[in-house]
Automatic annotation (TrEMBL):
It comes from the Bacteria. It holds the Pfam family Redoxin. It comes from Streptococcus suis. GO terms for molecular function: oxidoreductase activity. Coiled coil: none annotated. CDD domains: TlpA_like_family. Residues 27-190 form the Thioredoxin domain. InterPro entries: Redoxin, Thioredoxin-like_sf, Thioredoxin_domain, Thioredoxin_ResA/DsbE_sf. This is Thioredoxin signature protein.
Length: 190
């Protein structure tokens, strides 16, 4: 009887550890908060961190709607807001209408780069495309296999990077923001 208990305990322990490893590798991206509450402010990275983020973001690539690889260099000359999001994320669903209003207001002066974080499990390119087509009219790009999100150390979505016309990161938001907060930052870079 004792050997059977030890064996059963070993099986359970193996399943728990295996499950934790599986979840750790497939679910490393979370929504920014358990609610869709909007933040009135956000702590900003230091100048050194902004410089490091600028270096990293200049190297990311992503796919356009025809699966052509593109980069931020293709958007040079105008300020940009780079938004990491997913269709399954309630916080992203709450933030996108605010971003749509800002897109209408600033779209001629600011590049809006919506990077759909595609992990192939929770988020697929098809899900992201359908979600936007049903609700919005802006162009979006794919971050296939979360390569850009990983290189930018994005662990929560939505995450938004605001860049000046020289493509330097000037502000980072790792949670939902009000329209006014984002507009204030966009006004300083346009």
């Amino acid at each position: 009887m004792r050997k059977r208990d030890i064996f059963a305990t070993g099986v359970v322990a193996t399943l728990v550890v295996g499950g934790a490893v599986y979840l750790g590798t497939t679910a490393n991206l979370t929504q920014s908060a358990p609610t869709t509450e909007v933040s009135q402010s956000s702590s900003q990275p230091s100048d050194g961190e902004l410089l490091s983020l600028t270096e990293k973001i200049s190297k990311i690539t992503f796919l356009d709607k025809s699966n052509k690889e593109t980069s931020l260099a293709d958007f040079a000359g105008k300020p940009s807001i780079v938004v990491f999001w997913a269709s399954w994320c309630p916080d992203c669903q709450a933030q996108l209408p605010i971003l749509a209003k800002l897109y209408e207001k600033y779209g001629k002066d600011v590049n809006f780069i919506f990077l759909n974080v595609v992990d192939g499990t929770r988020e697929t390119a098809e899900n992201g495309q359908k979600y936007l087509a049903d609700n919005y009219k802006f162009t979006y790009y794919q971050d296939k296999d979360m390569v850009a999100a990983d290189s930018m150390e994005v662990t929560n979505i939505p995450t938004m990077f605001i860049l000046n016309k020289d493509q330097d990161v000037v502000s980072v938001f790792r949670s939902n923001q009000t329209e006014q907060t984002l507009a204030d930052v966009l006004d300083t870079v346009k």
